[in-house]
Amino acid sequence: MRDARESFEKAARLAPGDARPLAGLGQIAGSEGRLVEAETLFQRALNIDPRLPTAWSGLTASRRMTTADSAWFKRAEEIADSGFTPVEEATMRYAIGKYYDDVGDFARAFRSYQRGNELEKKRTQPYDRAERTRFVDDLLTLYTPEVLARAPAGSSDSARPVFVVGMPRSGTSLVEQIIASHPAAHGAGEIAFWNRAVRMHENVLRKGLPDESLCRQLAAEYLRVLAGHSEQALRVVDKAPVNCDYLGLIHYVFPNARLIYMRRDPIDTCLSCYFQQFSAAINFTMDLADLAHYYRVHERLVAHWRSVLPSEVFLDVPYAELVADQESWSRKIVDFIRLPWDARCLEFHKTERTVTTASVWQVRQKIYSSSVGRWRNYQKFIGPLLSLSHADS
Q1: What's the CA angle centered on 311, arms 305 and 315, to 5 degrees?
Q2: Cβ neighbours of residue 210 under 8 Å, at least 6 residues apart?
Q3: How far apart, in whole angstroms, are the C-alpha atoms of residue 30 and residue 348?
Q4: Stretch(es) of the chain classified as CATH 3.40.50.300
Q5: Half-sphere exposure of 150 (CA within 13 A, CB side)
Q6: CATH for 130-385, among 3.40.50.300, 3.50.30.10, 3.30.530.20, 3.30.479.30?
């Protein structure tokens, strides 16, 4: 992050008429929790280039918009209609959708998000429902209670790793921030290790479990990755949602690691995914029917993990209950990862650390409940999601 900051600062000095370095500095300031500074930098960038989509997007992510911004965002809509590339227009539509959602104009918000998703789908590989179902079926067949009951040769007894998983936008960043506020813990964000490891060793891991040699290799490599994030912390949090696919393998390699699963109302979760401009790899978020399918298959996989993993390593955290009773659930989480209670976990919004996920603004705020039941504002627009249960899954 420091190298990126220095590069943007140098570029801003050498080319003061270029808005892009200012937007880059704004993104860094936002990820580090300096939200007022981030807003100022994005506004400076837009003063130079009102057509810079990343500055519009960064601005809406840095704070909650109000009706005082209405004239400004009317201008954003005019700019979005004036001839962007599809990817640039998509970024603008998500930003405009965020503005309308913040001010309570839900019909316009949904139309903006819908347009953004339609543009994203055109440049993304289609979500393959059949392939996703087959993948989960294979996991259920491979990771049986009998297999996971064995203590594998080569496994690590380390308790450093803590995995916070769930659907994207289910509250994983919030729980990571709570844990990272403990002086003996560190939040490493979304580590891509397990996804890459499975791809690298796909011929072995799609057919069976790792042998002793590969088990030791995976454990050693992952612990080195964690040490690169923090050498001192007793617990290091990996909050990559995709790790939900690999909990059987993770437990096989690290049987003492703690696994925390975030449960949030499925419609709220899926709607929040639809409203977020993710990378092309998360292609199921760009269509409401795809989201509904992915969630149902995801729910089946998580039910399997609950049934086959030891209860002492798996904790369900209901998002709505965490929001309603912050201290009780924060204490449960800290106790679950075997650390002594520290009151700083209740002041998570004050913790200074870099956050690079879509929740960069949310984790800097005191806990709030306005996102619980949010889907009701959009009920008439989200037909494919309404078949999902309204309660925590």
Answers
A1: 75
A2: 152, 154, 201, 204, 218, 249, 252, 253
A3: 16
A4: 130-385
A5: 12
A6: 3.40.50.300
Instruction: Give the residue among 268, 270, 274 at the shortest CA–CA distance from 118.
Output: 274
Give dist(CA 92, CA 189) in Å, integer: 26
**Exposed/middle/buried for 355, CB within 10 Å: 0-12, 13-18, 19+?**
buried
Check: pTM over 0.85? Answer yes or no. Answer: yes
Strands ordered across the beta sheet of 185-187: 185-187, 235-238, 161-165, 258-263, 314-318
Residue extent(s) of CATH 1.25.40.10 domains in the chain: 1-63
In sequence order, which ranges of 181-211 are alpha helices (DSSP H)?
A: 193-200, 202-205
Q: How far is CA 110 from CA 117, 253, 266, in A?
A: 10, 43, 18
Fold for the domain defined by 1-63? 1.25.40
pLDDT in tens, the chain (393 residues): 667 777 887 777 877 788 888 888 888 887 777 888 888 998 899 889 988 888 888 888 888 899 998 888 888 888 888 888 888 999 999 999 999 999 999 999 999 999 999 999 999 999 999 999 999 999 999 999 888 877 678 899 999 999 999 999 999 989 999 999 999 999 999 999 999 999 999 888 877 889 999 999 999 999 999 999 999 999 999 999 999 999 999 999 999 999 999 999 999 999 999 999 998 889 999 999 999 999 999 999 999 999 999 999 999 999 999 989 999 999 999 999 999 999 999 887 776 545 555 545 454 444 555 667 889 999 999 999 999 975 444
The two tokens of residue 252 are 């096989």
